[in-house]
Amino acid sequence: MSKVERYVVIYDIKNNKNRMRLSRLLFEYGIRTQLSVFEVEVKEKEYKRFMKLVERKVKSDGDKIYVYPLDDKGFKRIQRLGDWKNSIINDFFI
User: Fold this and answer.
1) What are the structural domain ranges in the chain?
2) pTM summary value
């Protein structure tokens, strides 16, 4: 069985269409925690494919995507404060 790794993905994509495509891709791997922030889980053997898919979403100068690894210790220490349950469940897609 392939190990699952966790990442935080933060992005700033100018074009609405490209930004929506990226967020839909990220929904396949995890949850939205803020409008431009996702927590994702990727199987170790699928990481290269995941990164290629994410990289293809950078289309314009100024587009940025950051992928931060989150180890098990760090994941267990995440503290969600405020109305975080609604931010994960609700989305702005119609």
Assistant:
1) 4-71
2) 0.81
What are the tens digits of pLDDT across the range 26-72? 999 999 988 999 999 999 999 999 999 999 999 888 999 999 998 87
Report how far residue 74's alpha carbon sits from residue 6's, in angstroms, rounded to the nearest whole number. Answer: 10
What per-residue string of b and e applies to 8-26 under the rule 16 or more CB within 10 Å gives b? bbebebeeeebbebbbebb
DSSP assignment string, 29-78: TEEEEETTEEEEEEEGGGHHHHHHHHHTT--STT-EEEEEEE-HHHHHT-
CATH code of the region 4-71: 3.30.70.240
